[in-house]
Amino acid sequence: MKILVGEEDGFNIKLAEMLDIDLIPLTSKTYKDGEVCPRIHANKKSIERKKLLLCLRKTPDENPNDYLNRFLFTAGALKKEAANILAVMPYLVYARQDKDFLKGGNEFEPISIEIMLESLGTYVHGLLTFNSHFEREQKVITKYAVPIHNLDAFNVFGKKLREIKDLVIIAPDKGMKPLAEKIARKHECEFDYLEKSRNADNGEIVFADKDFKIEGKNVVTLDDMISTGGTMIKGIKHLKKYNPANIYAMAVHGAFTPGAYEQLKAVCTDVFFTDTLKSDKSKVSVVEYLAAYIRKTEPLGIGL
Ligand code: R5P
């Protein structure tokens, strides 16, 4: 028998329903000094030698360290009783630091994702996530201490994209061009990418002029995540010079910093992002895709 452990929110209730398994609720408290402490609302015996799915989503304003600690402490407590645990961390924290960006010399940095996964790997046997920052393809990544099932949440935007006529997909930079091309092929529409670079003096993002053929079209500009919204807002303002009918912002992870969603919404027609992070503004859910993936692939024997 398999059991889902996670907060009793719409996402987990639906995930448990779709997998036809029980949901053990999880809550968390924060002490006055800032330390976090999760609480698993079940008798230990009920999870003894069971295969568990642990799904915990971050809110955009939760400190990633608090979130990670909640995850680690819960996984550690469950591991003492369970047969094995498959972790679902829909937005993978610390994925941006997947290299030592100082590249040697007299200073060096941790490869945070590597160390984080070594810690997590003490307790869990596999990890499911969406669009990790370091891997664009949907695949199982085995180079870290925990196998990572990296799912591509752009697959869940199909319905939204089909609703938009005269569509042109624009990637925010050359690196995302293959993704824009793949989505454009699927939806039989045009695509292009923004020529993004950084000003050498102040590090600011700049977009070069280009022969964008988007006049009167409905443009969707996409990215893996939105944080401050700075990249999208600048890109959208640049694209507006080419007179599109509408511009929509689309991203997997809505990791908005305070005020970022509102600022972005003010410069475009609409903003679409998934529920990999908790938000009442998300219009697209990954939960069905996640459940179907677990059912189909049975990652580490924890599927159904
Ligand atoms: C960058 O590598 C990412 O793909 C996003 O473009 C970036 O994280 C977005 O951040 P912000 O919303 O703060 O510009």
Mean pLDDT: 95
Number of beta strands: 15
Q: What is the SS-derived class?
A: alpha/beta
Residue windows where pLDDT falls under 50 for at least 5 positions: none
Straight-line distance between termini: 9 Å
Question: SSE order, as H and E?
Answer: EHEEEHEHEEEHEHEEEEHEHEH
Q: Which ligands does the model contain, each kind named once?
A: ribose-5-phosphate
> In this structure, how is the largest beta sheet organized?
8 strands, mixed
Question: What is the helical fraction, as a range of percent?
Answer: 25-40%
DSSP strand content: 25-35%
Oligomer: single chain
The shape is globular
Radius of gyration: 20 Å
Count of helical stretches = 8
Trace the largest sheet across and list its strands: 3-2-1-4-5-6-8-7
Overview in brief:
The chain has 304 residues and is of the alpha/beta class. It is 27% helix and 26% strand. Helix 7 (260-267) links the parallel strand 14 and strand 15 (270-273).
